[in-house]
């Protein structure tokens, strides 16, 4: 018996990954807290590594205009995915703070299995939505930034966009996790 044509196509892994990335992140955070073995120096160094990641995410969120126009200003002039690059930098800081190689492996696994497909799905959407995206892809790397800006870009940062995208939640989440690590360190001493 054939299926009616009105049935939706099966979900691609990119769509599934997009839907499960938040719950998977919460599960990973619980595993992180359980596996972490912080020390005061690792906590301080990890925090210092996290700060540029948070700053990059904040700066990028003030530029992006989701679904309205292709964002190529600010950090988007150097990397197509400054939000994910900022997250990777933050993850490196958390890995340093935790002092556990299993956490590094877990973070890499989550990034490859969840965020890699999400990025690919977002790229497909941008390719279909913005004809100028192909030129942008040829000029700007996916993750690691280029040294010079893509075209002549002026700063179009908007603090209203930062607040609209609720990027402050990343800072609050980092503070909460650092407080948990500090508490774990104090309790275990």
Write up this protein.
By secondary structure, this protein is mainly α. The chain has a single domain, classed as Four Helix Bundle (Hemerythrin (Met), subunit A) (Up-down Bundle). The chain is built from seven helices and no strands. The N and C termini lie far apart (66 Å).
- The count of β-strands is 0
Run of helices and strands: HHHHHHH
Shape: globular
- Distance between the terminal alpha carbons, to the nearest Å? 66 Å
Total of DSSP H or I helical runs spanning 4+ residues: 7
Blueprint (SSEs and pairs):
Elements: H1 13-35, H2 40-61, H3 82-98, H4 101-129, H5 133-139, H6 159-164, H7 168-188
Helix pairs in contact: 1-4, 2-3, 2-7, 3-4
List keywords for this structure.
mainly alpha, 0% strand, 7 helices, disordered N terminus, 189 residues, Four Helix Bundle (Hemerythrin (Met), subunit A)
Summarize the structure.
The chain is an all-alpha fold and 189 residues long.
């Amino acid at each position: 018996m054939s299926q009616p044509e009105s049935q939706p196509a099966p979900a691609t892994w990119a769509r599934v990954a997009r839907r499960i990335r938040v719950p998977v992140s919460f599960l990973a955070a619980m595993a992180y807290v359980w596996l972490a073995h912080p020390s005061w120096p690792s906590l301080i160094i990890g925090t210092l590594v996290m700060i540029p990641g948070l700053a990059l995410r904040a700066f990028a969120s003030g530029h992006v205009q989701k679904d309205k126009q292709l964002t190529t200003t600010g950090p988007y002039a150097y990397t197509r995915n400054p939000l994910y690059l900022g997250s990777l930098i933050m993850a490196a800081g958390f890995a340093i703070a935790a002092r556990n190689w299993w956490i590094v492996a877990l973070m890499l696994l989550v990034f490859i299995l969840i965020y890699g497909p999400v990025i690919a799905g977002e790229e497909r959407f941008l390719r279909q939505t913005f004809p100028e995206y192909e030129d942008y892809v040829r000029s700007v790397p996916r993750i690691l930034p280029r040294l010079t800006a893509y075209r002549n870009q002026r700063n179009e940062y908007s603090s209203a966009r930062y607040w609209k995208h609720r990027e402050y939640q990343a800072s609050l989440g980092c503070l909460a996790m650092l407080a948990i690590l500090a508490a774990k360190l104090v309790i275990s001493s």
